[in-house]
Each structure stands twice: as structure tokens, then as C-alpha cells.
Amino acid sequence: MKNQPQKFINIAAFGMDQRTLKILEMVFNGPGKGDYVLVKDIQSAQAGIFDLDSLDGQNFWKEYQRLYSQLPIIILSLDDKDIAGTVYVKKPIEVDKLIKSLKKLKLLSEEALFSKPVETSPTQVTDKLSQGPRDAKLAMEIAAIEEEEILHQYCGYAQDINPDKFEEIEKVYYEPSHYLQSFFEKAAVVSQQFENGGILIEGLYIPIVLLYQQNKIFCTCQSSDNKLRTMTLLPLSHGHLRMTTLSETELEKYISKHQLLSQPLDNFLWQIALWTARGRVPKGTDLHKPILLLYWPNFTRLIVTPYALKISALWMENPCSLLETSQILAIPQRYVFTFFSAASTLKLAFVDRRLKSRISSRQASDQKPNAKRSLFQRFLARLRA
Amino acid sequence: MKSYKLIFTGPPGAGKTTAISVLSDTPVIVTEAKATKRDPSHQHKQTITVGLDYGIIKLSSQEKIHLYGTPGQERFDFMWDILTEGGIGLILLIDNVRTDPLEDMRFFLKSFADFIKKTKVAIGVTRMDISSTPKIVDYHQALSLFNLNPPVFDVDARSKKDVSLLMQALLYSLDPGLNEN
Fold first, then answer.
1. How far is A241 from chain B (nearest CA, A)?
2. Neighbours of A385 (CB within 10 A)
3. Residue B75, min C-alpha distance to chain A (Å)
4. In degrees, to the nearest 5, what angle opens at C-alpha A62 toward C-alphas A58 and A65?
5. Which residue segment(s) compose the domain that B135 sits in?
6. How far is B31 from chain A (nearest CA, A)?
7. In angstroms, rounded to a whole number, what is the distance separating the alpha carbons of residues B105 and B111?
8. For residue B43, is pLDDT > 70?
9. What pLDDT does residue B2 have?
10. B169 contact residues in A (CB cutoff 8 A)
11. How much is the ipTM here?
12. Which residues have a Cβ under 8 Å from the Cβ of A334 and sit 6 or more positions away?
């Protein structure tokens, strides 16, 4: 009989001071939702977590490898560590990264449990033979978890609302002016006036230079920077942020002095909008009026959220409202809202208040599919594989 | 055995051969010849396609998508009608480094107008890393004169992800009701 995966796993910690142990305990019980239990005794642990920077960290690690190297392990360190069979988490610890790594650890631990010899039987031989596919399955599960988490950062978790209930409708709105998103949008508008030169934004944790005409933003961070994401989620404190115009010469000097790197402004604004909206739409957006999509977003250079291509194709063909889009395409509302919020930030999508929807949901469902739909479906599946 | 055709077109050097080769399940059959008279903007390109490129995407043992790349030079335009016969859609690749990429786009849209009317087109603009103008928005503005609103993406023809996304957009243009999963 196969071992069943248990709900929680016991994790032994090594080389930690009391403060770090306390933090781990809080993470395990809080965001970890009780899926992880800190234990002192390695004999009862299904996984381990090591602080390699502690005084005896390296010695503990060598000793551990000698005695218990079969356990899945998280390595905590200030420096990047690429140790086979371990999951690395950079210090200082960021809770969401630790949780992501713990999920991987849990999967690895369950995998170790499955592959542990329980009894000698013909089925065990079969299990060993199927190790390869199981490893691939495990890798796919880990990749799926990571993908799902990133997806939630952009699209949130919200369930579909009932548009007849006022209190539910309120849930789909957010106020962009309360967040960093609106500040960047304003800076982009100001920057539009300058053929040369640009706007310097100070007061964030790093300086950012914005050049609208060149569709560029200069900073020292990557657009996927976790700190930047956190800042987009916090209520905006206008007092700390400053916008200064820079001439072309000043700009060149500033960029070179601070060694700023460029990235496309469109991509940056798109990502900020996704992080901020998280499956919602800007306050005041009419959910019942049709959406005009001016043209297809440049998807090869933007984050493609779920169903974004499908929504674009529908809106290019038949402008319809946000709620109808979800209904017609049979997709969760949050994905439609997410895509609209990002596209409207780039001024690609608008609510057309004058028009009534050209098609009703009923008509849309009555529309005949393309005669080659099943072929296209198989072709699409092949491309997405 | 069921077979379908997908057509790649565009001016010489736009990346048709490369785009087909990143998607094809079989080695691409390329009929290239050494370029004798070279466009100054294509010093990178040692060969030109004088016949056509051909690749295959196998959907199953019984079903294939044939990828055809048209020769870019106008003197081969007599082949275009034959090639598009029965095709399911058009991928138009435009090289942003050429002298007048917007004119290139107009030329190919006119040449394939009948085929586009029957199916759909998706446009990939290549080498935007070398020449950032015309911008994508300029292409959309030019397209409005044709009353067309196809996907136009910045594409690296060497990138499977880019070419695949362009194809997916083409498929959704043909039928927005397709399912993702």
C-alpha cells in the first residue's frame, strides 16, 4: 500500500537563533496555514531548514549531509547558493518567497515519502521503474505552483460577482489614485510634453527616470522586483514622492552617474497596473457598457494574463461589456477585469459610454463557431503545450 | 491523413525561414541561394529564399499543418496565389530595418488582400531591437486605412515563444471562442 501524503510536514531547523526560530514559527502558523510544524528532533522531521550564515552553519551542514542527506532542505543565506537537491531562500527572508519554497519542500517531502521503501513487493519494483515520470510530474507540480502564485499576484483570487447585488459590485473596484500606479501614469502624461529630456521620480526606494517619447523607464531594479510590487500595493503617500524635469544633458549625466538600466515604459506600466488591480477595475468603470479596444496589445513584450488573447480577439470583433465578455467567453470575471485594467492604463481600452453592446450574450452564444474550430483547437493546444 | 496550410510571407530578410524553423517538427526544407545583389540593410543575410520554405507541425499521426514561406522577392509573386489556395491564415513578417517597412506592409496586404478577406492575418515586426521605428502604433495607424485591425507584435523570429504567440493570436482572430485549455 502506498503512503498517503499527510496534511502537515515536520520541519527541523538548524543553525537558527531564537529570533529567527520565532519568525519561522509565526510564518508556519500564519501564512503557512499550519501546513508546516517546527520540530527540534531531526528523527521526527520530514524536511529541514538551514541557516548557512550562522556561526556553526557550515559545520551543521557538513554533519547533516553525512547523516541525514535524504531529507529535502531549504537553505537560508545572504549569498546565492546552488546546492543540488536543496531549495535556496535569500536572506533577509521575504515571507512570500519562504512560503513558495515551503510548498516546494512539502512536495519534495511527499515525494521522498512515496519513494521510501515500505515493504518489498512487486508493486515496489513498479514504483521504482516509474520514478522518472514521477520526477517529471513533481517538477511540473512545482512549476504549476509557481505559475499559480504569479498569476494570483496579477489577477487576485476574487470569485465572480452577482451584478444585481450592490455590495458585490463594490468589490470589483479599486481607486488607482490611492496607489503608485496613478503617480506613474501622471508622470507619463507630464513626460509626454518633452521631446527630449524626461521626468525624475524621487522618494521611492530607488530613483526612477521616465522618458515617454522614447517609451523608456530607467531604474536600478528589474520590473519583477518584489519591493516594487510591495510598494504598488501600499496606499500612496504623496508627501514623499517628487517629480523633477531633467534636460537631455542632465538626464544623460544622471543615468550614467546612477548606472540606471532601461526597460520599456509600456511593459512597466502594464505590470504596475496588473499588480495594483489584481483582478479589479478602476473605480467608476461601467461594467455594462461595451469596451473599445483600439488595437491588440503588443503581447510578445507584455505579461500575457489568462485569456488575454481571447478577450482581445473578441473585443476587436465585437465590443461588449466586461460582464458580457466573461459570460460570452465563459471565463472568470477577474481575468477580464485584470486585462481591462492593464489595457486601459496603456490607453488601449476604453468604456464606450455612447454605445450599447452590439451583441447580447444570447446572440453571442448563438454565433456559429468557425467551421475549422476543432482543428484550430488542436493547433492551439499544440502551440501552448 | 488530413493536411492544412499556413502561409508565412513578407519581404526578403524578414525572418520567414527562421520563424518556420523554430516551429517545425521536421527540419525545414529551404530553397535558398547565395545573395549576389544585396540590400544594404541586409548585410546580415548571406542567402535569400528563391523557391519556398517548408516545415510541418504534426498535430497527430493523422493530421499535419504545413508551413509554407513564400519567397520574399516580388519576381516570385506568381507563386503566391498557388501557395495560399486552401490556406487557413497568413503570418506577415515585416523587417523594421528596411527602408520603408510601412510600405512593405501595405504592399503585402494588397498582394494577399483576397486571401486575408477569406481568412485572417497576424503581423510580426522583426528587428525592432535594431530599429525601433516605425513603432507598433504606426503600423496600427497604417492598417486603419485598410480597415483591418489584426494583431501586430514585436517579434524575434528566432524566439519560439514570440512566433507561437503570434500564431495563437492569429487562431483567436479566426475564432475567439477557442478554449485555452
1. 31
2. 6
3. 32
4. 135
5. 2-174
6. 26
7. 10
8. no
9. 77
10. 296, 299, 309, 312-313
11. 0.89
12. A155, A156, A157, A158, A160, A279, A280
- Output the CATH code of domain A9-118: 3.40.50.2300
CATH of the domain at B88: 3.40.50.300
Task: Kindly tell me the burial class for residue A231, based on how many C-beta atoms sit within 10 Å of its own C-beta (0-12, 13-18, 19 or more).
Answer: middle
Residue B91, beta-bridge partner list: B8, B122
Interface A–B counts its CB contacts (< 8 A) at 100
- Quick check: B154 contacting A, CB < 8 Å? yes
- Establish if B106 belongs to a structural domain: yes
- B 5-44 residues with CB below 8 A of A? none
Mean pLDDT in each 10-residue stretch from start to end of chain A (385 residues)? 62 78 80 82 80 73 71 81 76 80 79 49 42 57 68 88 89 92 90 83 87 87 72 78 88 87 92 94 94 96 95 94 94 96 96 67 60 92 90
Summarize chain A as % helix, strand, coil (round to 5): 50, 15, 35
Contacts of A382 in chain B (CB under 8 A): 57, 59
CA B19 to CA B9: how far, in whole Å?
11
* B111/B108 Cα distance (integer angstroms): 5
Q: CA angle, A165 as apex, A162 and A168 as ends, to 5°?
A: 70
Determine the pLDDT at residue A378: 93
**Cβ contacts of A373 on chain B, cutoff 8 Å:** 175, 177-178
Question: What is the domain count for chain B?
Answer: 1
Which of the four pLDDT bands, split at 50, 70 and 90, describes residue B181? low
Mean pLDDT of B98-117: 95
